[in-house]
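User: Please fill in residues for this 135-position structure.
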């Protein structure tokens, strides 16, 4: 009877320690990526054309060129100016690249332009042959 109890306890402990170890391994494999925010005047003509075609509605796309990967996120047509896009997270795991951005509205008390705007951001990273996951 004692052997059965010890075996059950050992099995439960093994399961518990294995589960804890897996989370640690996942955290260790997450690596923040260095990136550059690319201004419109530094984009290739081809990428500018693609963005211009998609700007009316929200979009998420990637574009590879000359050893770099461009991650593009657009928020579609906004009724006024003064919007900006922030990067909350950009990291790589063993299987994918994850990106999370946020659209910020015009600052309180400011008088934004009355013409429509099309806020987007283009992030440049070294090329990696991985899927990009947009959070």
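Assistant: Residues filled in for all 135 positions:
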């Amino acid at each position: 009877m004692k052997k059965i109890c010890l075996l059950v306890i050992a099995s439960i402990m093994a399961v518990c320690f294995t589960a804890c170890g897996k989370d640690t391994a996942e955290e260790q494999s997450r690596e923040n990526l260095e990136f550059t925010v690319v201004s419109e005047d530094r984009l290739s003509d081809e990428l500018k054309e693609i963005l211009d075609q998609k700007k009316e509605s929200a979009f998420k796309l990637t574009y590879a060129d000359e050893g770099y990967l461009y991650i593009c996120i657009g928020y579609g047509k906004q009724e006024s100016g003064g919007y900006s896009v922030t990067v909350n997270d950009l990291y790589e795991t063993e299987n994918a690249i994850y990106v999370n951005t946020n659209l910020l509205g015009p600052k309180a008390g400011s008088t934004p332009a009355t013409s429509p705007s099309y806020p987007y951001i283009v992030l440049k990273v070294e090329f990696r042959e991985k899927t990009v996951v947009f959070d």
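For context: The CA atoms of residues 9 and 29 lie 31 Å apart.
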